[in-house]
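Recap from last week: sequence in, structure out.
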Amino acid sequence: MAARHIGKNIREVRKVRQLTVRQLAGKIAVSVSTLEKYESGDRNPPPGVIAQLARHLHVGPDRLTGQPYLGGAETDDQVQAVIPELRRVLLTYDNPDDLITAPRPLAVLAAEMDHVARMRQDGQYVPMGPLLPGLLSELTHVALAARGDEQRRAFWWLARGYRATNSLAHKLGYHDLSLPAVERVHWAADRSGDALMQVTAAYLKAGAMVRMAAFGSARRLLEGLEQEVERLAPEAALSEAQTAIQGAILLKLAILEARDGAPERSAQRLAEAAAAAGMVQRDTTHYEMSFGPTNVRIHEVAALIDSGDTEQALARLREWGAEQDRTEWELPDGIAAERASHHHIDVAAARLAEGNRSGAFADLVRARATSPAHTRFHPTVRHTAATLVRLDRHQSNAVAAFARWTGV
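Predicted structure tokens:
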């Protein structure tokens, strides 16, 4: 199986930019030997390093990850066929094409959009995708024609629809489509009259900045949002929703600092988020942002992995597992499937970095069982699976079959 791993793309672009391995390693603050391992495919760079590499090589992260993945297993799902239609809807957002029939009542559209939002949180992109273009078009017509409270409610639901569009585009690797989708979330949120929806829209934009390694811009935006949530609370008495959203902002800042090479600041943000989770005392999904004690721990592991401290990340899982009388920490029931799947994907990458190939594969299988579509489309899964195949001396049928399933 001749897979094109991410290291080949890094080396190819580095040579085009006429940089030596030593020069590029110095720019991203990793050792020459580590970069050589990335380029050879012996080690996979974490998301933060990919973002830094892309920034210093003056390309988008998708150029290095190889997204969007075309011609592989994803084409069988027909989800790619939705992309042109979504481009049209995003382009005509404030001047939509005429509908053949009148749009359905807002209550019906809202119920369908709520279903789509749940599908998004569970990573069900394949069945979700075909629903989006028509639903967005109908909601846009209702929002532009309505007045007063109904118009604001229509724009509120439209903002959620554009958020689902952003997730679909981002997960499939269409970053050129993801960014305008975020702007459309802003556009609809501003017209919804809901300040927390506006904060959510800006949070999504900050997330895109983090992925592009625009850490300074993202930090300023997120810190401003944290202050904005405080300002929205009367006498600093935050509601559960406000506390959860502020906590999600703190977790995003923790990941930002980890990727920007500041583990101490990352740990401080995680401590602040843990304090907020203590006030919430349960796992929540206000405004589709997962937050609570479980998500704080998920992000703590992710921040350690993004910082390159995979050994400590796995040690933390064992430490928390002891609290449950288990070998390693197990996620509680009820966590959004995409969030749980992402955790298993991160842990698989950490295990591979520590040389535990069987453990890495077991976590990939768990990720697939939790959210198949999210796992199939995730670049880390593809790189991890490809590396497992290359390192598998016994040519395991299970590993090879999993890699083929991802499209490797």
